[in-house]
Amino acid sequence: MADYHVSGLITNSFGKPVKDILVQVLERDQGVFEDRIDDLLGSAWTKKDGNFRISFNEKQFMERFKIFEKGPDIYLKLRNNRGEVIHTTKVRKDVKKTQKTRLAFKISLDPNSFENKVKPKEDPFSDATNRRMGSFSGFEQRADFTDNLQQVFTMFLSTLHAWANYNNEHSWRKIGYDGPLVPKFPWRTEHSPHKVKWKKS
Amino acid sequence: MNCIFGTEAFEKRQEPYDVISRDIIRDVDVCVIGSGAAGAILATKLSEAGKSVILLERGGYYDGESMNQREEDMMPLLWKNAGANFTANLKIAIAQGSCLGGSTVINDAVCFDIPYTIIKQWQKMKVAISESEWKKSNKEVVKRIHITKVKPNELNENAKKLKKACENFRLYDKKIDHRYNYRNCGPSFTDSSLTDCMQCGFCHLGCHYDTKQSMLVTYIHDALQNTKANFTAYCNCKADKITQENGNVTGVDGTFIDEQGNEKFRIRVNSKIVIVSAGSIASSNLLQKSNIGGKNVGKGLALHPAPFVMGRFKEKIFGNRGIPMSYTCHEFGVTNGVENGGFLIESIFLPVFQMAIAIPSFEKNHRRLMMDFNHYTMAGVMVRDEPNGKITLTYDDHPKVSYDLSSQTIDDMARGMGILARFWFSVGATSLVTSHRDIPEIGTKADIPKLRDAVRNNPDGLMLGSAHPQGGNKMGDDPKNCIVDSDCKVFGFKNLYVCDASVFPTPIGVNPQQTIMALATITANKIIKKWKTFKPVKRSLGKICTLSQPRYGLSKNLGEQFAIVDHKQRLFSELANSKEERIIPNKNWRFNPKTLEITNNVFWKGFYGRDINLMTTGLRFFGGFYKRFEKNNSKSFRGITHPFETKIVNAKSLATEENVPGYGTVIRLRYLDHPYTIAYDLLKMIDKDTLIGKAFLGEFPRGRELFNFSMSRVYDVDFMTEDDLLTIFNNSKFSHSPKGNEIVGKWEGMLVSDSAVSPRSQIFHFESEDGEIDMRYSFANMIRGRSDLSISNQLFKMDDQTIFHDEIRMVTPNFAVGRWVSDWSNQNALKSFIDDFKRILPVPVAREHSKSLDGITRKFRFRWPKLAKETGFSFLGVEKNADNQTRIGLSFILKRTG
Lengths: 201, 898
Known about the structure:
The structure holds 2 protein chains of 2 kinds. By secondary structure, chain A is α+β, with helices and mostly antiparallel strands. Helices cover 20% and strands 22% of the residues of chain A. Chain A has helices at 62-65, 128-135, 139-142, 149-165, 169-175; strands at residues 4-12, 22-27, 39-45, 51-56, 74-79, 85-88, 104-109. In chain A, a hairpin with a 5-residue loop joins strand 5 (74-79) and strand 6. The longest helix of chain A is centred in the C-terminal third of the chain and has 17 residues, at 149-165. By secondary structure, chain B is α+β, with helices and mostly antiparallel strands. Chain B folds into 4 domains: 23-146 and 205-300 and 467-539, FAD/NAD(P)-binding domain, CATH 3.50.50.60; 149-184 and 305-466; 554-566 and 604-710; 720-898, no CATH class. Chain B is elongated. Classes of the chains: A alpha+beta, B alpha+beta. At the A-B interface, strand 2, strand 3, helix 2, helix 3 and helix 4 of A face helix 2, helix 8, helix 9, strand 19 and helix 13 of B.
């Protein structure tokens, strides 16, 4: 007979029940490993009314904790019908059989917090070096290097020279160049309405 | 909902956007490749006509807010190859956009109607597009992207100087339609206070204000907003191959890439029609990769190469301020009726970093010249060159652009630079800076002839830029010389179109964006008219991870599938493999030459995730695994798990169905012998030939999950084993020695291991010359050479410089199998190989190694000849014949690519 019964309700951000969500109960293992090595204690699909109920037994985790006389540290992992993880709850530590409230979950799915979503980059420019590196993929095949070593060398030096000397505000000021008219991260910085610095023609 | 998808997530987006997190498979009416001047219009117009449309774009989606006017940030984001895009001889830098909207995002917004001279020239070349068709479509484009003429008060100081110079030379006496350029600038959809060009001067780095009416803010924006349309744009998506069947294209295989161009996910698009609009270079490259169009694809490339001359003035010009390209001198170009060659002189100004690269000097001189940044005027001589360039395919399928300046183009450049030099002096320039390394500066008018001579005598000294690659897939009515007809439909195909500047039969001599847009408009209308003639979509799964073919999945996908799919208990009884442990064709093994699929019931072949990492690469090269089952009793199967190459692992197991906490009813595979008892597998049968599984280490049921895998009894030739290959190779029902010119063409070869075939390892070219077949090879893009062929009814043999030779057998017209093998020998084959290997090593080293290796062999009773077999060099196989002779070698498959 099952010792633990985890139950709950999954709703969307408007409070409506969501069916066909796979709910998995996992037991957080100690350690530095990634979570896929956590023990899967049980799983169930949500019904039409968004409810789910999962039962599991003390034997599934107890041996490991006998010495410490602790209950399991459990959390839920929610997957969509493609198997993608869309939500992971916080871990509830040392849950006891009698603590029914700690075994009940009410989860509201926020579409923007789906875990399968890639976390936004700090800015689109942060990967510029990677992009530059990638642009040279196959360069040795696209270009006839050996026939044009001098050309390659000259180009390399020109670019390096320009990069070192004309790619910063200090050098721009030196030659009197106006520089950009917008902040580096326009979407992040409050800036005044669009206008140019100089008098238009 | 219409949406843009990509692999990058940013904080904020102006259009509906979502991030791709898995393989995609879509069935649609239209697949358009490329989102530039042609692709965006075709996709939008066809979606407005009620067709479901997918737009594939290699670059990312970056909106106006992301465009911050800084070269260091914008060039890697918006420019193809981050700006490092050159001809093969590195003489010409080619500026192209690589982002949603294509080059229209980074160009100077200059618009010219297709010149009348060009319409007439093309008509003579059998391009059946009338003047009225061009006019009508131009009118539509003008309206949609707000093309308007630059007003006199919008000329910046740079353009004013050029205008004054033109007046000084009385060029105004000539009859020219317009000198103030037309531009596509208009109201910003993101800031209602902006109604026209901001004149910020940063056109090359994308328009922050969204007033430049690029494809991104016009057609693509309209398609996304159209609630009646079914439009999806996939960004960061590289089209790898157009698939075809009997003169019909069936769709496109593509790859989603990260910032460095590495594969993240895959896409398979099944579509009624495919339209390639990726620009001259990429469109030709895609046709070549897809083995479409024949030898003429990529030929006839023109670039509009453009040298520049800058005037230095005492007063400040501030060339960077205002519209960079607002004024053009037409007298010497096609717009003034010049039939062959000719050039336009166009005002232009480069951002500071590009300017610093373009100035042909170093050190003090460079510093001195840059100090006068604000005192320069600049204009370019855009030459209508001859279409004598070509695009070829490199070993790794990159496009290689070969282009040499013709004598007329060089002469036009010399003339144009000379005239421009006189222009600047006529309006008060104190000196000039040129784009020729031999004459970087000119102090007086008297030096102008020297500049012209330098250009003519040493054209390689010019620093040239191009922003208008055209040609490569010529339009016309002759399938022998042209790739597409006047409808832009590829000859030989019913539903494949190429529509972009690559179809131009000649360069047009003016900035081409408006002509490309007009052509796309014409083509879209033609496609809509003949829509009913296209066949329905034929569904194919391609090489996408799906439940029925988990072998194509990433490890993560396998885990996801395992979590949600139920084990089909009714199929458990079919787990057993054939009683025979060796392949018996048509009994426990079948090969379908149409689908190139192998059904093999000797075992369940194992597959790991397709992730590109150290583990999967290692497995690909050093072996895979299989599992075999036989019935034990009504409730269990005895099994064995075995890597293909090594005898080290031979794990006996017992498979039973059990209800495992957390997983429900699954197949539990327990290992019976030490040391394998510390592990177990959980398996789920998806269909009678497909299993997915998880391997665990530790005591059941609480072991640590190790990895996900799948297994199958049906797989395609990309996963064939060496035994599969040998079965096909040695059986005349499945393969035959190439006859006549059957083998002629280009083939890519992939080594066969027992895990999966390798990526491309070699290329074979077979050419027929005077009835003889000539063969060239390139192995790993490093070793190249020719092989001597000996052809008989039984054997197609190729000898090279090594002790090995190739033997090839044809399976289908586009698929062959081969072996690179030693001669048959009575000795142990590996021993002879090692002896030969020692022989070809430098003698002293070989002797030393020979002694020490022999010593180790004696001491540890290690048998050298079995080394490869026991350490699992998966590609290396030993073959025995009926006379008990052996030979060693590599197996490979060949797929026709040309």
